[in-house]
Amino acid sequence: MVTKEEIMKIAILSKLSVEDDEIDKLTEDMAEIISFADTINNAADVESDFDNINNLSNALREDETMPSLDRELILKNAKDSDDGCFMVKNIMK
Amino acid sequence: MSESKISKLHQGLVNKEFSCKELTEKYIAAIEKDNEALNAYVTVTKEAALETAEKVDKKISAGEEIGLLEGIPMTLKDNISTKDIRTTCCSKILEDYTPIYDATVWDSLKKQNAVLLGKTNMDEFAMGSSCENSYFGGAKNPHSLDHVAGGSSGGVASAVGGNIAVYGLGSDTGGSIRQPASFCGIVGMKPTYGAVSRFGLIAYASSLDQIGPITTTVEDNAIVFDAVSQYDKMDSTSQGRKGAPVCDSLKNDIKGMKIGIAKEYFDGVREDVRKSVEEAIEVYRTLGAEIVEFSLPSLKYALPVYYIIACAEASSNLGRYDGIRYGYKAENYRDVNDMIKKTRSTGFGEEVKRRILLGTYVLSSGYYDAYYKKAQNLRGKIVQDFKNVFEGCDVILAPTVPMTAFENGHAVSDPVETYQTDICTVPVNICGLPAVSVPCGIDSKGLPIGMQLIGNSFEEAKILNAAWQYEQAAGKFTPSGFGVVG
To answer: Among B4, B19, B176, B480, which one carries the catalytic annotation?
Structure first.
């Protein structure tokens, strides 16, 4: 049975915050979902060499030099940018 | 309806019965009239549509030849990138995101002068079966506004079924094209993994996602598939269509075709749905097909295998939404880590967060072997089981969904109960196979029932051929009463 502590740990790994008033309901939902996922463990152990479907092999192209996207265009969707860079709060003191 | 709508409109344009501008204006007027009720479109691109229409009209006036899809009004699911047209995935986190490049499928249709009417509604990041996980509210079923259009490509299905688009492209990760097509009484195909380029499709689960056409007739579906199934060097999983255009073999005789029926596909299927599919089996018998019964015992694990793999891949794919480079960014935060957490927690909806958590859980240390690795091994087993089946039959016939469209609000109340409704659609995504859903009946409430034809890899021609023959013999298309009439 999944615990509140496990859900909090997974939330940290997922970079999601869980508020105090959400944790009980979320743990309940996740317990139900995980017990559903757990039904695969009723299946006998199978060894398969599954790698990918349709025997795909990477469709690689030649490494050619191509014009890259315009810097201003790339920054267009960012909420904060300055001097051609994405802006975030300082990470070092 | 069994006559190609696209071919009919194309003839109308070529014979100058109407201009492309008139046709486009008719669809835009229908959107203005009916979209409030259907909630199919989240963005309408009226001006760009009319500009393309004028371009096509000039070509026609100049006596130039036009292609089959040229000037035909259509739509795209809102997870297919369109340069300079906002693409939201129906999420708050991408509400104001405007791509700076086109998805390959749109790039190729744009070059064919397809008239894009707008972008259509979906479950947030394609996660859902009712379209109600959309940040913009769900799309409604054109056969009953009290019912959902299905999901996740609910907007495309609502628009095509509601006659406010001639056709559309959706994406199918676990049934997201076929299920809404079934709910809305139209034709939806999930092509073979690799047959249609996914460059520019905003990723949900990369080993399962596939773009495909949603149309009112099988022939239209074949026309659109032929137009978008090409090798694309920008997609490392791309293989393109193998063989001749599928339109060439649509009308082939199916005498002697072996149609497989697996009893497991009928477990838990509602009685009226089962009856409609069984009637379709009889139609195939009268058309001279041979019915082959077989068993697929591993099918019962397909659903949890699907959810484990899809969520694992989603938890990784959705790691990119951090508020820094694009999309929504939270306000009032302490530091970068706090900003990313607040952005994701307030930017994603509940279902998306649940799937990210499940995906992170099954990949985390201590649980990886019991869930992810086990699911991948079972995936290999299911792939092998389907391969064996195709040694004895040409196509598999099954219900698309065990029921008809849910009532509004029903799907959001219980996540696991809703996951169960994907039982018939997920196996082909796990195996990368093509499958098409076609209408095969109507329930007592007047809601459409759908069945699917599943083929071996790259055998779209076979399933569309079988679907076309059924449509001609006993097609169950019912007009919805919305949108452009006639």
So the answer is: B176
Q: Both tokens of residue B41?
A: 């479109």
Give residue A42's identity as a one-letter amino acid code.
Answer: N
Residue B344: its chain A contacts at CB < 8 A?
14-16
CB B114 within 8 A of CB B70: yes
Split at pLDDT 50, 70, 90, the class of B210 is very high
CA distances from B230 to A20, A42, A59, B149, B174 (A): 50, 41, 13, 30, 22
Domains belonging to chain B, first-starting first, are 5-263+278-283+286-291+385-474 (3.90.1300.10)
Structural contact between residues B148 and B138, judged by C-beta atoms closer than 8 angstroms: yes
From A15, A41, A73, residue closest to B370, measured CB to CB:
A41
Q: Could you state, in order of their start, the residue ranges of all structural domains in chain A?
A: 4-42
Catalytic residue among B5, B59, B77, B190: B77
Q: Is B418 exposed, middle or buried (0-12, 13-18, 19+ CB in 10 A)?
A: buried
Minimal Cα distance from A85: which residue of B? Answer: B325
Facing residues of B290 across strands? B258
Q: In chain B, what residues touch A18 (CB-CB under 8 Å)? A: 345
To the query of whether residue B153 is one of the catalytic residues in this protein, the response is no
CB contact at 8 A, B152 and B129: yes
pLDDT at B154 over 90: yes
Q: What is the ipTM metric for this complex?
A: 0.92
Nearest Cα neighbor of B105 from B134, B132, B83 is B83
For B14-38, the pLDDT digits (tens) are 999 999 999 999 999 999 999 999 9
